[in-house]
Amino acid sequence: MAKCISNPNPQLPNRQQNTSTSHDSAELALSQSTIYRPLDRAKREIRICDLYPASQISAKLQCSLRIVPINAAGKFVAFSYVWGREAETDTLYIDTVEHRIKPNLAAGLRRFRARFRQDPRTRIRPISIWIDAICINQDSSEERNHQVPLMRSIFSRCEYAFSWLGEAGQDSDFAMDCIAKIASVRRPGDYEYYFVRRSIFETFCEGRPWVAIHNLLRREYWYRVWILQEFILPANLVIACGAKALPWKKFRDLQCLRGCADILECDARELRMEISHLDSETQDKTVTVFRTLWELVFILSRDKSDFKNYSIHGFTSLIHFTMSLQATDPRDKIYGILALCKGIDIRPDYSKTTQQVYTDLAMLLLSQNSNLLWYSGIHFGKNINRLANISYWPSWVPDWDYITRCFTAEAILPLRQLEREHVDGSGMSLSFKKLGFEHLQKFTALHIRGQIWQAIMNPVPADEWLKPHHLSATLQEMYAKFYPGTSLHYGLRKPMPQLVALFLTIIQSIGYSMPRMDPEEDLAAGFCVNTLVRIRNGINDGSEVTKSILELSLSALLQMFAEQFETCNTTFDSPEMYKDAYLAKEMECFRGRVFFKCTTGHFGIGPLGARDGDLICKLYGSDYPYVLRKVDSHFVLVGQCCVLGFIGDDELDTAQSVMLEIW
Predict the structure, then answer these.
(1) Angle (deg, nearest 10), helices 498-511 and 468-478
(2) Does 11 score more than 50 pLDDT?
(3) What pLDDT, on a 0 to 100 scale, did the predictor assign at position 109?
(4) How far apart are CA 96 and CA 101, in angstroms?
(5) For residue 352, what pLDDT is reported?
(6) Is the distance from CB of 601 to CB of 501 less than 8 angstroms?
(7) Per-residue pLDDT tens over the stretch 218-268
(8) Which of 89, 322, 409, 524 gives a 20 to 30 Å CA spacing to 374?
């Protein structure tokens, strides 16, 4: 995904929640045995739900189930929806048996049924649909294991998918009308996005349309991990909200609003200029609409042919696309995207724990030289005590559910380069040497060859380090000192001022991850301006600053960088122009990370869980170093880091390498 999607309401419905009494459970077990006759796996059988028409929308829901081989299912509609947190308070009558369903599904079925009421061809005959909550016995793990792998065929073969966003509310009817109107605007060519946006903003010059679309796109429906296959696989798709419905192609046409990535740079300054007449809250929501379209619609609009080459080597990239999408069952963070990947030896098994599922996946992908370790250790960031409780989770196994729930995906900045890699995974694989696994009593240990480099000293969370008193003290210590070593990535041929090295440390951590929208000279100018402002603020908050720092001028700072870059053209003539651009890059770099120094004088940026005495290690085959912590005779993986002069080295001294055991 381009930049990771954040859900404003991270509370998820509990798909497995059981709110029934023992009496109700007994009745449920009886009804389930009556409804769900066994399926023949050899024939790849599925159930189709035939929903009976009704003259009133409030009429009771009635249907029957029939078992058919998937190849002989005929025409049917696949139902896509949110399970919801509510208890099963509504009733669906399957033949003569009452079957409890959740209110959101019941509302969607009634609205879906009403679409056929005025069509004489379908008014009196049942409508064939496939719904996981009804067509799969959710109380049978064995049946779920069998049916989930068939969902690729189910959604590929359906006549169309019906995507139910929920009942109307928060101006959703108005939002649907606005989307239809936006879609009617002439489609732009490669260089016409600006003129289309201008035309749309002239039409929707008030705030209400953008707030309504914002609310519609922030519904929980859009943030489900299953949504990717449910949108990409069907030949046709209908989006329904309340009584309104639009074909998906109307939503796809919202891409004309996305424009180019640069309109969202630096807090969307260009976009805000176009909507400057709106109040600040509405501006924020409009910007959110554009960001959501950039992240969400772009991914969901991809053709299924884009995924036909996804093999095991591209599965890590596929996980990245869906990293911030949510799943009621954490195992579905993996199982929910299997339908889009071929050749990966993973079968849904709901008898396994989440830890087992994630560990098995990590072993498989690491064995195939995946860059999976980039995601490892992150789940220890906000609760570092978990590292002492090894039985809880192996540190080298990414906890995909934690990453989603805690929005830590945004801290995995270097991984954004995956969005520009080939879909088959080429160019993303690593070449780990002598990698193996050892199955211990409660977990699995990773054995991998690497070289310990140096120790971390005094890591400080970035948001704390950037406070004026902290930053001023750091700059005072750096001033007039030189940074040791060189960086192959930047081609540095001589020692440089530590202040310049600090800037390059920040920039190098984003350099691999996204295209630079601003030249280094521009960002350096912005860095100098902000540094000087922070030094002055540091004086105001009572911190001690030496005379040399007090007398430091903007021209003196710029001169350091002019000598380093050698080509600064006219950028440094008006450095204030670039302060916001630098702050935006800095925020991208530091989010969810710590600033640290090393015993050798180097400094870098590392994972939030790093602490004094942790070790920087090069794992052979990885472009980035990692932070490890020594525990008895083994290590735990804290996370990835960036160190100027260390990142970008092609290889280290193999004679000094050792086999590391990571728990």
Answers:
(1) 120
(2) no
(3) 96
(4) 15
(5) 92
(6) no
(7) 898 988 889 888 988 999 999 999 999 999 888 877 766 655 445 555 556
(8) 524
Contact 338, 348 (CB under 8 A): yes
pLDDT at 9 over 50: no
Query: What number of other Cβ atoms are within 10 A of residue 541's Cβ?
Result: 10
- Residues 6 or more apart in contact with residue 24 via CB below 8 angstroms: none
E-strand stretches of 58-138: 61-69, 77-80, 90-94, 97-101, 127-130
Question: Is the separation of the CB atoms in 482 and 496 below 8 Å?
Answer: yes
- Check the CA dihedral 382-388-391-395 and report its sign: positive
- DSSP letter at 326 equals B
* Sheet order of strands, 127-130 included: 97-101, 90-94, 61-69, 45-51, 127-130, 77-80, 160-164, 237-241, 244-247
Query: Within 10 A of 38 (CB to CB), how many other CB atoms are there?
Result: 11
pLDDT digits (tens, 9 = 90+) for 289-314: 777 776 676 667 666 666 655 666 67
- The string of pLDDT tens digits covering residues 337-379 is 888 877 777 889 999 999 999 999 999 888 877 777 878 876 6
Task: Identify the burial level of 89 via C-beta atoms within 10 angstroms of its C-beta, where 0-12 means exposed, 13-18 middle and 19 or more buried.
Answer: exposed
- Mind giving me the DSSP string for 146-204? HHGGGHHHHHHHSSEEEEE--S--TTHHHHHHHHHHHHTSPPP-TT-HHHHHHHHHHHS
Give one DSSP letter per residue of 4-35, joined into a string: PP--S------TT-----HHHHHHHHHHHHHH
What are the φ and ψ backbone dihedral angles of 283, each rounded to 5 degrees? -60, -45
Share of the chain residues as helix, strand and coil, in percent rounded to the nearest 5: 45, 15, 40
Burial class (CB in 10 A: 0-12, 13-18, 19+), 116: middle
Which residue do the tokens 């035309």 mark? 199
Q: Which residues pair with 454 in a beta bridge?
A: 616
- Choose from 2-11, 450-459, 577-586 the range with maximum mean pLDDT: 450-459
